[in-house]
Design brief:
Protein name: Sec translocon accessory complex subunit YajC
Family: Belongs to the YajC family.
Organism: Congregibacter brevis
Distance between the termini: 84 Å
Helix content: 40-55%
Number of strands: 5
Main location: membrane
InterPro entries: Preprotein_translocase_YajC (IPR003849)
Structural class: alpha+beta
Largest sheet: 5 strands, antiparallel
Number of helices: 3
């Protein structure tokens, strides 16, 4: 009984004007916020990492994404061979190089 009259009152009032425009502006604003918080910084880090991987050279001291430190002995298009100890060389994909260390870091750690 009371529910039917309440439902009839809301149906007679109609939807508020401008609701659709507000929703569109809200969604666009949300996408812009998401772009500046998530997408743009990730693309920047991706470009920096790609530039660092492309600039790798023989003799660079690096750390891999798994935390292994080593000196680059040889490299090709996709792989890097690291000297991690005397007579121990490991082969990694270039994309798994996390950072290039300053010269002499390996000697100062050992």
């Amino acid at each position: 009984m009371f529910i039917a009259s309440a439902h009839a009152q809301t149906a007679a009032a109609g939807a508020p004007a401008g609701g659709e425009l507000f929703q569109i502006i809200f969604l666009v604003g949300l996408f812009v916020l998401f772009y500046f918080i998530a997408i743009r910084p990730q693309r920047k880090r991706q470009k920096e990492h790609s530039a660092m991987v492309a600039a790798l050279g023989k003799g660079d001291e690096v750390v891999t994404s798994s935390g292994i430190l080593g000196k680059i002995v040889s490299l090709d298009d996709n792989y890097v061979v690291l000297n991690v100890s005397e007579k121990v060389e490991l082969k990694f994909q270039r994309v798994h190089i996390h950072a290039v260390l300053p010269k002499g870091t390996l000697k100062s750690i050992a």
